Amino acid sequence: MGSHSITDLTAAGLHPVRTALFPLVLLVVIAVAIPGRACSEENETKSIRNRYGVSAVLGNTYNPDFDRSFALLSGCAILDYAKFSHHEVPKRLRLKLECATGMTVRPNRRAMASIGMLVFNYLGDFPGGIRPYLEAGIGVIYTDFRRSGQGLRFNFNPRAGLGVELSFKTWEPIFAAIRFGHISNGGFHRDNAGTDFVAFIVGTFF
């Protein structure tokens, strides 16, 4: 791959920016397999429970252009991954279910909605109530717009991100994350121009 030029990658259907997302996804997968910061199994089980949250999502496309911004309201459920697995998994691993709805705010207002499922991996507990995490998964998204070369309004939406939870004594934890995502139809339509975006997420559990 390293010997190919950008022109070769584009001709092969592999946009160089999009291809650069693969190491991020690989990093998340590796992190899932690596033990987090040492802490007792009992404390980990008590502190990481099934939870539900709401968040604001602000994002912008960066490939093929920086011309589209969006704002979404998202709800999530973080569940015990072990309950959905037929084999033993680390207790710090969670299954995250998400749904979101909102609209583009630039260059015009168009509806957006998505649902997704992610593997959610806590990296450990740190002083000050700080708990970082990695996440990666897949979803489907509806956009009430189509770029040139985008054949469908319903598309696949793989995503991966890095975030942190902050815990407090007097109110529920809050969380913030940065996430990278991709939108394309996976070849179900001959016109399959993809879109890549970055999003910033801020929310709270309840």
What would you say this structure looks like, in words?
The chain has helices spanning 6-11, 16-19, 21-33, 41-47, and strands spanning 51-63, 69-80, 93-106, 111-122, 130-143, 154-156, 159-166, 174-183, 195-205. With 206 residues, the protein is mainly β. The chain has an 8-stranded antiparallel barrel with strand order 1-2-3-4-5-7-8-9. A hairpin with a 5-residue loop joins strand 1 (51-63) and strand 2. Residues 1-14, 16-20 and 35-47 have low confidence and may be disordered.
In short:
This protein has 206 residues and is mostly beta strands. It has 4 helices and 9 strands.
Topology of this protein?
Blueprint (H helix, E strand, L loop, with lengths): L5 H6 L4 H4 L1 H13 L7 H7 L3 E13 L5 E12 L12 E14 L4 E12 L7 E14 L10 E3 L2 E8 L7 E10 L11 E11 L1
Antiparallel strand pairs: 1-2, 1-9, 2-3, 3-4, 4-5, 5-6, 5-7, 7-8, 8-9
By helix and strand content, what is the structural category? mainly beta
Low-confidence stretches: 1-14, 16-20, 35-47
Count of all domains: 1
By DSSP (H or I, 4+ residues per run), the number of helices equals 4
CATH names the topology as Porin
**Kindly state the mean pLDDT as a whole number?**
82
Could you estimate the helical fraction of the residues in percent?
A: 10-25%
CATH class: Mainly Beta
Strand content: over 45%
Rounded to an integer in angstroms, the radius of gyration calculated over CA atoms is 18 Å
Order of helices and strands: HHHHEEEEEEEEE
Largest beta sheet: strand ordering: 1-2-3-4-5-7-8-9
The CATH architecture is Beta Barrel
- What about the largest sheet? 8 strands, antiparallel, barrel
Distance between the termini: 46 Å
Tell the overall outline. Answer: globular
Give the beta-strand count: 9
